[in-house]
Every structure is written in C-alpha cells, then in structure tokens.
Amino acid sequence: MEQIRLQKFLARAGIASRRAAEEMIRQGRVEVNGAIPEIGSRVDPARDEIRLDGKRVSLENQLVYVALNKPRNCITTARDPQGRSTVFDFLPRLDVRIFPVGRLDYDAEGLLLLTNDGELANRLLHPRYGISKIYEVKVKGIPDRGALQRLRSGIELEEGVTGPAGAGILRELPGAAWIRIELHQGWNRQIKRMCEVVGHPVLKLRRIAYGPVRLGKLRPGEFRLLERDEIRRIYRDAGLDEE
C-alpha cells in the first residue's frame, strides 16, 4: 500500500477528523514505529506500526461502500439484545467490518449507507456539511399550504429550530397523503417530530436518497456496492479529496 499522510490514516481508521488527528499528533499521543512523528508525516499502513495512546491502530486494506434498502421492522445495528432483526441480517459476510452511516428508525425503511471509511462517515454525519437526505413520507391527513410552509421554514423542537427543508405533496389519498421531505440535518426522529408538530403524524417513512446516492430499484432487503462515480460524488459533497 502506498504512503498516506498520518492524519489521513487516523481519519480513515475512524479515529477522528483530520483536524482532530493533527491535534493528537501535536500532543504526542501518536507513535509510528515507536517514535513520535511530526505533522505531515507519511505512513505505509501495510508496514508501519501506528499507535494512539499506546493502542495499535489498523486500517482495513479495502474500503467498502454499500447501499442497502433497509426493510421495516429491523434495527440499524449489528446486534440486538431483544433478538430483533438487524440490517446485517440482509448482508453477506465480508472480509472487513462495515458500519451504518447514521440510522433509520425500526419502523422506517429505505436507503442506508454502510462503510468502513471512517473519515467519510464522520463527514456525512457532521452538520457542517449539510448532506442532503430525501424521504417519502406518508402522513395522516392532507397538509395544507400553511403546514408545508412551516415544514420548509423551520419547526421548533427540543434542539432548536429545524433548518430550511424541502417539502411538497407527492399524492393525496383518502385521509392521508404522501409528501416528499428533503433535510440537511439528522436530529433523532426529526421528520416524525416535525410532522407531529404540524398536525400530520407519520404513518410510513422511507429514505430514497442520501447525497448523490439514490435508492433506485433496490427492493427491501436488497443491497449493492456503490459505483465509482457515486463514491467520487459523495466524497466531493463531503468536502474530501480522494487521493
């Protein structure tokens, strides 16, 4: 494996962002082959021994990016003490350990990204980068223009006022409607709480896009590896170079 900057190695290993990794190096917490390195040092992950606070840090040789159509009634974790189905029940055994980027509620479905690229995952979840996430949401009742405008302009929740969002009706049903919501935040149960405030509780929710990645024709429980162009575009959206 070719040499990469030490702070980038630590970020890819999921330890911290590059900036935080640089601070760890300055503090002398990082060792390379038993020596304290300088900022900007380059390492070969396949040959060098890198330690943080005395603990060995390793980088998987192969970065993996998976898109899964998470079914309803399964949890976004590796194991569940209650014995419920998890998203990993729908994935094959891999030579590397991957983890979900964020989560979808137990009763929600749709696009879930999983990877072992710690740096990208941190960027996608960080509010600074405002990565777009698009949902199709079935709500009770039919939201009027005022309710949609409140969703778009901001709803007061415990954490504060939600940021600007996209919201529009996809189709109306007897006593319900499917609406499209685009968020650039990731607060816990955010869409459910927003819709509850405007008087239209969520009946069903599915995510159809995460940044440039689209759910497409994946059926619930199906997965695919991201294409090279998708990886390139999601790196760009997260403000990362792909060197």
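(the above was protein one; protein two follows)
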Amino acid sequence: MVTARNPVQWARTFGRLARGHPEQSPFAEVTQGKHFRIRFDQKVVFELDGGARPASKTLRIRVHPNSVTVCVPPGAPA
C-alpha cells in the first residue's frame, strides 16, 4: 500500500521502486501472500489496475502468486 500524498513523496517512492527496494520507502509497505483482508477506520476510495473504485471500509483481495505487489502504510497492524 502506498501512502504518498504529494509529488515529492511519490518521487521518493518511485525512486526506491526503480532501484528495486520499495520496502525502504517510508510511504510504502511491502508484503507477500495469497489472500488479504484490509480494514480501514473510515471509507476510502482506492484504485485497482489504475481505475478508481467506490469508497469502502474493507478490501478483500485474492492474488495469484507472483502476479501483484501490494503495499500498506508503515505502522499498520499485521
């Protein structure tokens, strides 16, 4: 999950990604898995494959191995 909110933060995040170390960005969280359930305190709008989706408090994600990279903010509960 990426929490970058302005062009400077996005540039820092993409810079780390381009160097192959997105986990070192303070604006990204990298993990691995096949099934994810993410809960937010309030409804948030999110994007999937570049397309905006309606605001939701819960995301359920099923991933095919090695097909998607998912990131969450630093300090988020495991």
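Reviewer note on protein two: Helices lie at 7-18.
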